[in-house]
């Protein structure tokens, strides 16, 4: 038995819990996706053509990305 490195609870096997590993993987994938949205939309070219709502969401995501770095 050992302690899971992710949730810090006892694991019956000598490895981290499978669900903890999967949850961390999903969280990292979603973070990568969220951080890549502005680049995928190529905002440097046609930023002014986007709707006000879309620009607000993208600015919010960009701020979150800057704060997390």
List keywords for this structure.
mainly alpha; 2 strands; rod-shaped; 69 residues; two-stranded antiparallel ribbon
Structural account:
Helices cover about 65% and strands about 5% of the residues. With about 70 residues, the protein is mostly helical. A two-stranded antiparallel sheet has the order 1-2. Helix 1 crosses helix 3 (about 50-69). The protein is rod-shaped. The model has no long low-confidence stretch (mean pLDDT about 80).
Topology, pairings included?
Layout: E1 2-3, E2 10-11, H1 18-41, H2 43-46, H3 52-68
Antiparallel strand pairs: 1-2
What is the helix/strand order? EEHHH
Which blocks of ≥5 consecutive residues have pLDDT under 50?
A: none
- The whole-number mean of residue pLDDT values reads 80
Distance between the termini: 36 Å
| Helicity, as a percent range | 55-70%
Q: How many DSSP helices? A: 3
General shape: rod-shaped
Name the structural class.
Answer: mainly alpha
**Sheet with most strands:** 2 strands, antiparallel
Strand tally, please? 2
Question: Radius of gyration, Cα only, in angstroms?
Answer: 18 Å
Quick description:
Helices cover 65% and strands 6% of the residues. With 69 residues, it is mainly α. Helix 1 (18-41) crosses helix 3 (52-68).
